[in-house]
Design a protein that fits this description.
mainly alpha
Length: 287
């Protein structure tokens, strides 16, 4: 199977368009660590690392969940289920993207190289969580929460309060919208014995947990501005993000999940980009 011939299929499998969630936060971490433009080299290796690890995580999830995806009506058109991609090819893709990620981390600094297997392990571990824990949504959140930490460590290999707050904010943000998205599979998860919150506790409970998660995320994003010493541009943007997060919950209800994709992709894609632009502008103005 030719990689070039199947490039579009691979992009569909890893949902390359969803990179808009994590990549801007990685850049936020890098910009804040540098106090402005982090340099072309850092941006290049960070981008390669983020695309690689996200592709690794998505492909691993599809590989690990193949038995579940075959049974779930919503996922029966996924590429591994239909046979558009073979399990052998997918396993090779997983190993290849994992290797690219480790190499990119090695080009950053020794700490990033040391932590690269940990990041890969956490990214893979998420795929098994819904088989045994209600916390699966927050594990996914923590995987994406590593994005701004990775961006920070790429530029400055030290652990800081600002990076920790970004991690917490992204974790709660992602968990919140994953709870909304998982509502689509509540009935299937319940019958299959999976531990998603919508499946085990019901959609209403999941929406309540999602709301609290998003309120917490909004608070963490505001705290990031305080910890990083950012100004009014970021403060306004963080407040707008809080309003967007609350707006998501006006689009869906336990009785109507038809607009969940708007809440999941459109609004959340806006959030990450808005915050990144606000950080870049605020740093440029203050600098």
């Amino acid at each position: 199977m030719s990689f070039i011939k199947n490039f579009k299929i691979i992009c569909r499998m890893v949902k390359i368009e969803h990179s808009v969630f994590a990549l801007p936060f990685a850049y936020i971490g890098a910009f804040l660590a540098a106090g402005g433009w982090p340099g072309l080299w850092n941006m290049l290796v960070l981008t390669v690392a983020m695309v690689a690890v996200r592709s690794f995580a998505m492909a691993f999830n599809r590989y690990a969940d193949l038995d579940i995806d075959r049974e779930n009506p919503r996922t029966q058109k996924r590429e591994l289920v239909t046979g558009e991609l073979s399990t052998g090819f997918t396993l090779g893709f997983i190993l290849g993207t994992g290797a690219v990620f480790v190499i990119a981390c090695a080009l950053m600094n020794p700490l990033c190289l040391l932590l690269s297997p940990v990041a890969l392990g956490i990214s893979a571990f998420y795929s098994f969580c819904k088989r045994f824990t209600h916390w699966c949504h927050f594990v996914l959140g923590s995987v994406l929460g590593l994005a701004p930490v990775a961006g920070w460590l790429c530029v400055d290999p030290t652990f800081t309060l600002t990076a920790a707050l970004l991690f917490c904010g992204v974790t709660m943000w992602v968990a919140g919208f994953d709870l909304l998205y998982a509502g689509q599979d509540a009935e299937f998860d319940r019958k299959r014995g999976l531990f998603s919150i919508p499946g085990r506790l019901g959609i209403r409970a999941a929406l309540a947990v999602s709301t609290v998660s998003h309120m917490t995320a909004a608070a963490f994003f505001l705290l990031v501005g305080w910890a990083a010493g950012l100004g009014g541009v970021y403060a306004v943007a963080a407040a707008v993000v809080g309003l967007i997060l609350m707006a998501e919950h006006l689009l869906v209800s336990a009785d109507d999940m038809s607009r969940v994709n708007v809440a999941f992709f459109t609004l959340n894609g806006v959030i990450s980009v808005v915050l990144f632009i606000a950080v870049a502008v605020d740093l440029a103005v203050s600098g």
